[in-house]
Amino acid sequence: MKRALIFGATGGIGQAIASRLADSGWSLYLHCNSNWEEASSLADQLSQQHPLQDFMPIKLNFLASDEQLQSFAAGLLPVNAVVFAQGITDYDFLGSQSSQTIERIIKVNLENPIKLTKLLEGQLLKQEHSRIVYLGSVYGGQGSAMEAVYSATKGGISRFAQAYAREVAASRFTVNVVAPGAVNTPMNAMFSEETLRELSEEIPAGHLAKPREIAYWVDCLLNPESDYLTGQTIYVSGGWLE
């Protein structure tokens, strides 16, 4: 049985990824940071749709200590793939952000994903085909004002994936980044309808991405036939920016 771990499975993109991978025959660990009820509900829903697969909610605070990360990784059943779909931002000028806010964004988006990658490497290397996909951002390729730290973490995860992929490529273990542009998720709910309409007009495709349009590319990267694609950042942006 093939099993994937989706970090951030209760988010807008994470739920779309879970649905897509379930349709492709994957059993799933459905991670939440704090929203246990939503993770459990998603697991129940997918179990009803796919009774021959396993769907297990699992909780981990991405601000966890090294010891907590180690305990979490040690308690998992073997997985073939890991998808890092969690992420946070803080829309503000750098000069107005506290050191705590900066540290939190870096830890959730970059530091702890790298540490979890290290902890999960051993079991992934045992698989015939193993995969890691990080959710990056178009802002990792072209930084955004008011999201300088967020942009830095997303650029950092692309460079990390490029380098780390070269360490494990001989084992048919691929490491890639799917980097969305603007996506119609609750993360963008802070913006007014007018702002989102103006943004849509800047995008050559003419609209914000639907979460399922991002999930499609994650599913492709997890396919065993994608062994030769590794170390890449795939920008799914409707032609906007990168």
Describe this structure in words.
Belongs to the short-chain dehydrogenases/reductases (SDR) family. It holds the Pfam family adh_short. This is 3-oxoacyl-ACP reductase. Helix 1 links the parallel strand 1 (3-7) and strand 2 (27-32). The chain starts with a strand and ends in a 6-residue tail after the last strand. It has a seven-stranded parallel β-sheet, with helices on both faces. The protein has a single domain (3-179, 211-234), classed as Rossmann fold. The protein has helices spanning 12-23, 36-49, 66-74, 99-125, 148-168, 193-202, 211-222, and strands at 3-7, 27-32, 55-59, 81-84, 130-135, 173-180, 233-236. The model has no long low-confidence stretch (mean pLDDT 94). Helices cover 43% and strands 16% of the residues. It is built from seven helices and seven strands; from the N terminus they run βαβαβαβαβαβααβ. The chain is of the alpha/beta class and 242 residues long.
